[in-house]
User: What shape does this take?
Amino acid sequence: MARLARPAPGRRRSRRAAVPVAAAAAALCLVLAACGSQLEPETVLGSAGSAGQGAGAVDENGQPLAEGAAPGGSGPGGPGGSGAPGATGDPGSGSAPGAAGAGGGSGDAGGGGGTKGDGENAPTGQVKAGSCTGFKNQTGITADTIVIGNAADVSGPVPGLFEASQDAVRAYVAYFNATTDLCGRKLELKTYDSRSDAGANQTAYTDACDTTFAMIGSMSAFDSGGSSTAQQCGLPDIRSAAVSADRAGCTTCFGAQSTSATEFQNAVPDYVVRNHAGAAKKAAMLYVNAGASSENAKYQAAAMGKQGMSFVYVQGLDVAEFNYAPYVQAMKDKGVEYVQMIGASAQFVRMAQAMKQQGFEPEVFMLDPTAYTKEYVGGGSDVEGTKLFINFTPFEEQAKNKELQLYLSWLNQVKPGAQPSFFGLYSWSAARLFVERSTALGGKLSRATLVADLKGVAKWDANGLHAPQNVGAKRTGDCWRFLELKGGRWVPSGGTAYSCKGTTKVG
Assistant: This one.
């Protein structure tokens, strides 16, 4: 039975120190109610056979790396060194601020050794390629390359928070360059470290406006910083997901995972009412008090209330709070039978432990994809029976999904041992969306035509990698499915098909 480690005597973490870390970790829960999932690489690479098979690491051109060499691309800068963010206001990418990725190269289809896709799983999918006649060089595009950028939280209060998103785009670039080109041009990736900081995000997008054609697969906990900059320069920004209202309102910004803070999927309350009718009338909504979490929790409770549920307890928890006993007692006193929570894995485990310690056994403990982590499963018997709602193909099911196999295989090629994640999966999707729509435009490709084209994208699922997303309309997708933790493993609950029941708007 796992127990969370507590601070050692004399080294108790201060509330001031805890707040920025907790806020960054929970930031994506605030708007998406769906934070990243991470599993051990050997777990996801060892179960599907074809994924991860190959001749070793490759660079972004799909060419084998020399033994011991690092993957290509501009590496994110750490807190110090010549690429240190803050000293000169640069985004902190590698040895030279904003240095371009390796990119380019011959793109020999035989290099790399990663899983190859065909048909809809080919790098350009099955879209009809537009004529290359009239293709013009422009910002980020030369006669040989198309430069795309990616800004992700690599360093900062939670190191590596969204590094998986950057790794995923690097993987897709390698896949593309090893196999094909776009009107004679290879892709080149330029990376930025947004450091869970709106200022760093702003700096990255200021540079990207002048040096890249588009930003692809970015993921930042505080993404408001570069939103107006992207819009003002007309920069296409196809993100893993948008977090802030500013980014969601940016007219050139889109999410491969489409979300709206005031819109919630009906699939969740429908599942609860159908399978746990009694518990649906005695529900509790808990949330970590950080940023917009309070507002979003209340939106969700209101939306679910309109679909037949009754919330008798809606309560916030301070980010530095370690004693959850009073909240558990309050739920017991109110006869709560359904508990839903917005936060991060550590807080979920702590709540599950507190419920177990006080003999409180609600019929349902429901969480979002935030809990799809090794850390949460490590809670042992305390977390057994937890249910999740998700909108993507679980990594445990990769053997049945060719696109998921491609993501995992090429991720392992460009960065052996790298951990895939929920947000990385959507960043891979963003890269595919960019390539497919750019291929369709052909010689008509420009920043403006790409943005206009993206506004018409609906029901995007990246070949079944995830549930259909309303990319152009920027509305929350209504198709979700459910998992249950049994014997330390996530298994389907109610089948593997998505339940698409529409959405409810509130606020």
Notes: The domain at 263-394+477-505 is CATH 3.40.50.2300 (Rossmann fold). Residues 166 and 427 are 8 Å apart (CA to CA). The radius of gyration is 22 Å.
